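In this section we walk through a basic example: taking a raw amino acid sequence and producing a predicted 3D structure, encoded as discrete structure tokens. The instruction is simple. Fold the sequence below.
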Amino acid sequence: MHCHPQRIATGRGHYGESREPPDIACPKSFRELPQIGTHRRCGVQDLPSRNRDQASLALNVFAIAVSIALHDLSFLAACLRTDIRRGQLDNVGEQLKSLHESARGLRTELDLRQDSAWGRQLASIRADISNSLQSEIDSVPGRVRRILRQRADKDIGSAPKIDAVEVEETAALIDFVAVCRTYASELAINEVTLRTYSDLQHYVERSTESLVQSLRGGDTKSRSYRQMQVKAAIRFCEVLFGHDYASLMSRAAENAVVVERKPPRAG
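The resulting token sequence is shown next.
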């Protein structure tokens, strides 16, 4: 048996009297597994009884293909974990899409029994993906609250500085939660993703409105710190609610500062 990049030729003889070697698809990636399943259902099972040795060989090739697909899925999950730990989220959307489609294809097209070796391996990979994603998702609300938490004027001097890099990293994590929501069901993170995204929306919306109102009072130092908070909040609003809502809150913040700066009218 010789394995080519795209096809694997198996055995001698073919259906009926033909002596051409039958081809069983060998996936270039696990995304081609539905095609493997089609070959198995429509090809191998229809072989004449005198060609059972060929059927057995075909099933062995199919088993190798599934094992390769599971290995590829496990490797992609490991790459996702590494990127998340490093804070490299630029390609997470594509990775999650590939994981989602591949896990769904393995689960639905092949109809793997949960108590089978393949079924247990797939369940283990999905659990591993779920744990990695859930850990990162759970951390996002805390990061948002640290940046947007309102403080009394007397506490602002000891408050941590608002770093623009941290704001952008947090905005990327909010977007990460939004992307996870799209593929949540197949990756076993549906509940945590929906809950976290909803909490972020409510918290950011309330905090942005309160921070904008706070610009109308306080001393110069306090107002400067709150302006940085408002800027961060508006950035988060852009991710969660879109550009239009973020622009609306930006104008509200500008108006609040203008009103505060107007001199009082004489007598």
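Looking at the output, two observations stand out. Confidence is low (pLDDT under 50) at residues 1-48. The longest strand covers residues 7-9. In the next section we compare this with other chains.
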